[in-house]
Amino acid sequence: MKRKLTPKQQRFADEYIESGKKEESAIKAGYKSRSAHSIATENLQKPAIKSYIDERMAEIASKRIMDATEAVELLTSIARGETKKTVYIGTADGVYEKHKEADLKTRISATKEILKRYPDNNKLVEQQIRKLKADADIAESKARIMNASTDSTEAKVSEYLDKLDDVLGGDSDGN
After folding, report:
1. Is 169 left (phi over 0), alpha (psi -120 to 50) or beta?
2. Rounded alpha-carbon distances, angstroms, from residue 1 to 47, 48, 76, 117
3. Mean pLDDT, to the nearest integer, of 75-80?
């Protein structure tokens, strides 16, 4: 069972979250200044107040950190050219501010980052697999050609040696 905080305890906890100063937080919450230090120390040891502070701190941290949806939305707005970047241009007449959309390279990069997050995107995977297969086929064909030319060269050399041997009148054993 979760114990509810009194309004004074909640004010103390909220002030403490904001400032991190226990005595000052106790005074702002309405505790007397002469007992503020001891009450603040006592309050910070109470499980209900500690858990309230921990929950609020986690909530604050989660609001400050970008989640996956927000990251994909940002990448999408970059890929679509919706996000503008401010560029300052200095001239003899002064400094001018210009809003530019992301260049093509940045937009393509953002698109790739989005697609990485969707492993079910078969078109991209299929294209990558097709390219890898084509590269493997090319390498295999080159190897076959190299092996075939080596075999035929050896056969031709052997054939020439046999003919030369016939012309010279010796046998192939060297006698």
Report:
1. left
2. 12, 10, 44, 41
3. 84
